[in-house]
Write a structure and sequence with these properties.
This protein is mainly alpha-helical and about 350 residues long. It is built from 19 helices and ten strands. The protein has four domains: about 110 residues, no CATH class; about 70 residues, no CATH class; about 80 residues, no CATH class; about 60 residues, no CATH class.
C-alpha cells in the first residue's frame, strides 16, 4: 500500500498523526498526488517498486511519502530491499535525506512504543462498566489487530445485549482501534459501521420506520415523538440528515422498548441502524468511482473491464480510446470510468445499447 493506492487516505491520516502535521515538510503538503491516468504515464524508474509500480519517486514529495508508507507498512522497520534502496537513493538525489530519516524514525518510535509492555488503561477496551457493587469491569480488550477483529465478531454476536448508545460507543472504539492497528475495513462486519453511524443514511427507509412506529406504538407520547422525527427527516438537508441519524435510531429503539420488540432484534425485527443506513461511506465512495451512467443506466466498470475483451472495446470505441484507458495491456477500470464519462451524450447512448446486448 502506497499513497497512490491509498484511495481513502486512511493510511496517510495515520502517518500524519504519528509524525505530526507541523513536522511534515512543505513540499509534501504541496505535492499533488497523481491520479491513475497520470501515474500510468510514468516510466518504471519513477517507482521504487518497479515490478508493481508502487512507491513513487518522481518528486521530493513522492519520495518522502514512499519512505513514510514503506516504514508504516513494515511497522517502523525499513527492510533491506531493492525498494528501500531505491527510495534511499532518490532521497539523496532530491536532497531530503534528513527529512526522510526523521519521518522514518518517528514511525519506528511509534511502533516501538506500541510494542513495549504498558499498563492497561480503559482506552484499551471497547467498553467499561460498573456492577452494582461499584466494581469496574472492562470488556472488548483490543491490544492488537487480531483483538480488534475478535471484538468486532463478538459484538456482532452479542449486539442485542446493548442499548443504542452503548452500541455506538463500542463500535466507535472498535473502529478507532482498527485504525490504530491498520485492520482492513473489509475484515469488519458491516454492523460495526452502521452502529457507529459511518454509513450512508437511507432517508426513505428512516421515514417509513418512524411513521410505522408512530401508528403502531402503544405510548401516545412516544408516537408523537416518532411522528415529529419523521417530519424532521423529511425536511432535513443532506448534512443535517447525517447528524440526525443517531436521534432517529434512539427514537426507533424507544418505540421498540415500549412494545417489547428490542429482545427480538436481529431475529424477528431489524436493528434500527440496519433499517436506516445503507452501505458504508467508504464502500459507497468506491462504488461511485467504478460506476458510470450511460443514457440513464448505471454500468460497473470493474465488470466491464473483466468481462469485455479489449478487441471488443476497440470495435465499439476505437483503438485510441482503448489505448487511453489501458495499463500494462489491460483495461483499467478507473481509467475506463474517466474515459466513458468524457464521451458525448450521443456516444454514451449508443454504447449503452451495445452493452445491453453484451450483458443480456
Amino acid at each position: 500500500m502506497d499513497v497512490l493506492n491509498d484511495t481513502s487516505r486512511r493510511h496517510f491520516v495515520n502517518i500524519a498523526s504519528i509524525i505530526g502535521q507541523d513536522a511534515i515538510p512543505s513540499y509534501v503538503k504541496q505535492y499533488d498526488i497523481p491520479d491513475v491516468k497520470q501515474a500510468s504515464a510514468f516510466d518504471d524508474a519513477a517507482f521504487a517498486d518497479r515490478h508493481n509500480r508502487e512507491y513513487g519517486l518522481e518528486s521530493p514529495g513522492a519520495t518522502w511519502l514512499s519512505a513514510a508508507y514503506l516504514a508504516y507498512n513494515n511497522k517502523g522497520q525499513i527492510p533491506g530491499s531493492e525498494i528501500a534502496g531505491n527510495i534511499k537513493r532518490a532521497a539523496e538525489v532530491w536532497g531530503i535525506e534528513k527529512d526522510v530519516s526523521k519521518a522514518v524514525r518517528s514511525i519506528r518510535e511509534h511502533f516501538e512504543k506500541l510494542a513495549a509492555p504498558k499498563e492497561e488503561t480503559d482506552a484499551d477496551y471497547g467498553l467499561v462498566v460498573y456492577d452494582q457493587a461499584g466494581t469496574k469491569k472492562r470488556k472488548y480488550p483490543m491490544f492488537c489487530a487480531e483483538d480488534v477483529e475478535k471484538a468486532a465478531s463478538y459484538f456482532e454476536e452479542n449486539r442485542r445485549a446493548y442499548p443504542a448508545k452503548v452500541r455506538k460507543l463500542v463500535t466507535t472504539r472498535i473502529l478507532q482501534k482498527a485504525a490504530e492497528f491498520s485492520v482492513p475495513e473489509d475484515s469488519l462486519p458491516e454492523c460495526i459501521f452502521k452502529e457507529a453511524g459511518l454509513c450512508i443514511p437511507d432517508r426513505a427507509s428512516a421515514i417509513d420506520e418512524l411513521e410505522n412506529r408512530a401508528m403502531t406504538v402503544s405510548d401516545a407520547e412516544i408516537a408523537q415523538l416518532a411522528e415529529n422525527t419523521a417530519k424532521l427527516v423529511k425536511a432535513a438537508e443532506a448534512e443535517e440528515l447525517y447528524k440526525a441519524m443517531d436521534k432517529v435510531a434512539e427514537v426507533l429503539e424507544a418505540c421498540d422498548l415500549v412494545d417489547g420488540r428490542v429482545q427480538y432484534y436481529g431475529v424477528r425485527y431489524m436493528f434500527p441502524a440496519d433499517a436506516i443506513y445503507g452501505m458504508p461511506v467508504k464502500q459507497a465512495a468506491d462504488m461511485c468511482r467504478r460506476i458510470v451512467v450511460l443514457d440513464g443506466n448505471a454500468f460497473d466498470t470493474v465488470k466491464m473491464a473483466s468481462e469485455i475483451k479489449p478487441d471488443t472495446f476497440v470495435a465499439m470505441l476505437g483503438p485510441e480510446f482503448v489505448s487511453g484507458v489501458s495499463s500494462d495491456g489491460n483495461i483499467d477500470p478507473a481509467l475506463l470510468a474517466a474515459g466513458l464519462n468524457k464521451l458525448a451524450e450521443a456516444q454514451k447512448a449508443e454504447l449503452a445499447g451495445m452493452l445491453y446486448d453484451l450483458f443480456a
